[in-house]
Amino acid sequence: MSIVSNIMEHNQQFVEQKKYEKYLTDKFPEKKVAILTCMDTRLVELLPKALNLRNGDAKIIKNAGAILTQPFGSAMRSILIAIHEMGVKEVLVIGHHGCGMTQLDSASLVEKFKANGISETVIETLENSGIRMDRFLRGFDRPEEGVKHSIDMIRRHPLVPSFIPVHGFVMDPTTGKLELICDGYAAMEAKKAGATE
């Protein structure tokens, strides 16, 4: 049986047995928080449990490495919509140890594209159109570095209000233990103090 057949069979039973009822909520995050985190499979259930989040508590935006690669990409758009349309008052960036984006080799990944049938012409066309693979596929040396990069992009974004604190964490993907990397409240206070001096 294929994965799609398994999913459809399970889904039919899920709906018929009304198992969805315990997840009912609305689209506005109860805790008024948006979380940018990694798509790593280890975090699917671990992250919400480790943060005491239930369905409906937060907007969770996932991508590879919790990295914002461009200020006007889809992940940043999701953060902006969460703030301006969904009532989000704080943003958390959560990376994790053992991330696949750590020391990602963009040249090696391009070779895998080719091995999977993507032609050299397509890659050259993209590069000639301004899509630099080394930037598009950028990883980081340490997860803290990736978290700080994304925090900086969010804080500096011209469409993010100055009153939104942006916090950064690195999570242990085995235990769920969080390490605070950047305290958004402290950063806002420091910015205020610098502005008043």
Describe this structure in words.
With 197 residues, the chain is of the alpha/beta class. It has two domains: 31-98 and 143-197, Carbonic anhydrase (Beta-carbonic Anhydrase, Chain A, 3-Layer(aba) Sandwich); 105-138, no CATH class. Helix content is 43%, strand content 15%. It is built from eight helices and five strands; from the N terminus they run αβαβαβααααββα. It has helices spanning 3-16, 43-50, 74-86, 106-115, 120-128, 133-136, 143-156, 184-196, and strands at residues 33-38, 58-63, 90-96, 166-171, 178-182. It is an enzyme of class 4 (lyase). InterPro entries: Carbonic_anhydrase, Carbonic_anhydrase_sf. GO terms for molecular function: carbonate dehydratase activity; zinc ion binding. It comes from Cohnella herbarum.
Number of strands: 5
The total count of helices amounts to 8
Strand order of the biggest β-sheet: 2-1-3-4-5
**Low-pLDDT residue intervals, each spanning 5 or more residues:** none
Q: Indicate the percent of residues in helices.
A: 40-55%
Catalytic activity: hydrogencarbonate + H(+) = CO2 + H2O
Protein name: carbonic anhydrase
Family: Belongs to the beta-class carbonic anhydrase family.
EC number: 4.2.1.1
Give the topology:
Layout: H1 3-16, E1 33-38, H2 43-50, E2 58-63, H3 74-86, E3 90-96, H4 106-115, H5 120-128, H6 133-136, H7 143-156, E4 166-171, E5 178-182, H8 184-196
Parallel strand pairs: 1-2, 1-3, 3-4
Antiparallel strand pairs: 4-5
